Amino acid sequence: MRKGIILAGGTGSRLFPITQVVSKQLLPVYDKPMIYYPLSTLMQAGITEILLICTPVDKPLFETLLKDGNQWGISLHYAEQAKPNGLAEALIIAEPFLNGEACALILGDNLFYGDALSTLLVDISSNSQGASVFGYHVANPTDYGVVSFDQFGKAVSIEEKPEQPESQYAMPGLYFFDSRAPHFARQVKPSARNELEIVDVINDYLIAGELSVKILGRGTAWLDTGTPDALSEATQFIAAIEKRQGLKVNCPEEVAYRLGLIDAVQLKTLAQPLLKSGYGEYLLRLLDDSNNRVGPASW
Q1: CA distance 53 to 45
Q2: Which of 13, 32, 176, 196 could form a disulfide with 36 if both were Cys (CB 3.0 to 4.6 A apart)?
Q3: What is the pLDDT of residues 166-178, one digit of tens each?
Q4: Residue 234: pLDDT above 80?
Q5: Cβ-contact 191, 160 below 8 angstroms
Q6: What sign does the dihedral 156-38-292-219 (CA atoms) show?
Q7: Residue 172 CB partners (closer than 8 Å, separation 6+)
Q8: Which three-class secondary structure state does DSSP give residue 36?
């Protein structure tokens, strides 16, 4: 059974002064806390046991907001990362929680949206061997970890923020690993940034010939929210989609209801405290939609 990890640590220094007193992942992206988006993505992948890693200061805030996850039919656990020592450290921190199981690691400031994305996530999550990551065409690959391919479309190298990238394909912050990931993470040496880089873990799988790279096409949106401009753009994107379609993006209550993790009575109970904001009214409308559980959807 694959388990989930959300890394929501760090100082959010690129968003100062906004994040000097609150975690970046607790900031709003339009009508929901940022953390709802990666949480919903893991739920769409069929993952219901999730560890959230955050700073000791922010842990009580996340616990107040998300509780133990039971309200959404999932199980949430918490762990602390005292300092932002790199993404690979999340796998080491999570090792007791994983207890030998495969995992999906998602960054707390990454948003995913796309047609039938949930179907793709479930398909990847069902394969417990090796590692799977994504490639997403970007205009500025020097800002990301970049995956390059040979003439047959097979991944041949992965570099972290290369000065001269060999492709335009960045790796979004969502990674699927088998049970060996914590072991590989423990072998990683600190980089020039004095961090344990997730790229080094992924390269272990690449060298072993056990890495799969899935390309996210033009119908899928990947947004990160690490800067004021990126946060603003993400908010505008989510607002435009929701206003146009009348459907919410990455709403954990809706995802839980569509997946059958909670029933109509539970959904109605969740909606009641949220009625004044309009969020609760949206949840109640789901109860009147006879097609709300039909087919894959972009949640």
Answers
A1: 19
A2: 32
A3: 899 999 999 999 9
A4: yes
A5: yes
A6: negative
A7: 110, 112, 134, 136, 216, 222, 224
A8: helix
* 10-58 residue pLDDT tens: 887 888 988 888 899 999 999 999 999 999 999 999 999 999 999 999 9
Structure tokens at 298: 């972009």
Place of tokens 């707390």: 108
Q: Do residues 42 and 250 touch, judged by C-beta distance below 8 A?
A: no
Question: Which residue is it, tokens 């209801």?
Answer: 257
Helices and strands of the chain, counted as H and E runs: 11, 14
Give the integer Cα–Cα distance in Å for 39 and 35.
6
Q: Tell me whether strands 75-80 and 49-54 are parallel, antiparallel or unpaired.
A: parallel
For residue 107, the surrounding DSSP H or E stretch is strand 103-107
CATH number, domain 3-262, options 3.30.390.30, 1.20.1250.20, 3.60.15.10, 3.90.550.10 = 3.90.550.10
Tokens of 53: 């890693």
Whole-angstrom distance, CA of residue 237 vs CA of residue 268: 28
**Mean pLDDT over residues 277-295, rounded?**
78
